[in-house]
TrEMBL record:
Keywords: Cell membrane, Hydrolase, Membrane, Transmembrane, Transmembrane helix. Residues 63-171 form the Phosphatidic acid phosphatase type 2/haloperoxidase domain. One of its GO terms (cellular component) is plasma membrane. InterPro entries: PAP2/HPO (IPR000326), PAP2/HPO_sf (IPR036938). It comes from the Bacteria. It comes from Streptomyces dangxiongensis. It is a multi-pass membrane protein. Residues 86-109 are annotated as: Disordered. Its main location: membrane. Residues 86-104 have a biased composition (Basic and acidic residues). This is Phosphatase PAP2 family protein. The keyword Transmembrane helix applies. One of its GO terms (molecular function) is hydrolase activity.
Length: 182
């Protein structure tokens, strides 16, 4: 079995297993977090709270998080989704009606996950406690994307990698810009 065939088989099995979760409390919680994260509302709200209450550290964390989020969305939604025209998981794999609400765009990568991970990973060095708090809904967004049938697990993993890379680049950019000016 080739590497890609193995990934497709794991994607199929994990997608079906996670989508089959029927606990109403889990389903409602994941859906509520995803709705809050839609259009980055959750992350923008968190940035406002951090900037308002966290002083200089909060403002630095908020700016880094929002910059990484914007870069991750540009890469995932503006570039990668256009290059990788991957269809969403088949509707027959998803045993609930939430599958009807998913977007028509490419499944690869998960832009929601990229944004959530980028925001969280970029702010964590400035304010580790806020990073730990934001990691919980970020993980919930990633799980919800598979549970709802919007993405395969490999889409979510790729989104997480894009988010981590975006956070790393944003955190590294200011020191690099200062060196170039000298």
């Amino acid at each position: 079995m080739t590497f890609f065939a193995a990934v497709r088989e794991r994607d199929r099995r994990l997608t079906k297993r996670v989508a089959a979760w029927q606990q109403p409390c889990v389903h409602r919680t994941l859906s509520a977090v995803e709705e809050a994260a839609e259009s980055s509302k959750l992350w923008c709200g968190a940035a406002v709270v951090m900037a308002w209450t966290g002083g200089r550290r909060g403002r630095e964390a908020a700016v880094a998080g929002l910059a990484a989020l914007a870069f991750a969305q540009l890469v995932s939604n503006g570039v990668c989704k256009r290059l990788a025209d991957r269809p969403r998981p088949p509707k027959e794999w998803i045993p609930h009606d939430e599958v009807e609400d998913r977007p028509d765009s490419s499944s690869f990568p998960s832009g929601h996950t990229a944004a959530a991970v980028a925001f969280t990973a970029a702010l964590a060095p400035s304010w580790p406690q806020a990073g730990a708090v934001c990691a919980v809904p970020a993980a919930m967004v990633a799980v919800e994307r598979v549970q709802s049938g919007a993405h395969y697990p490999s889409d979510v993993a790729a989104g997480a990698v894009i988010g981590l890379a975006s956070a790393w680049l944003i955190r590294r950019f200011p020191p690099l810009a200062v060196r170039v000016r000298r």
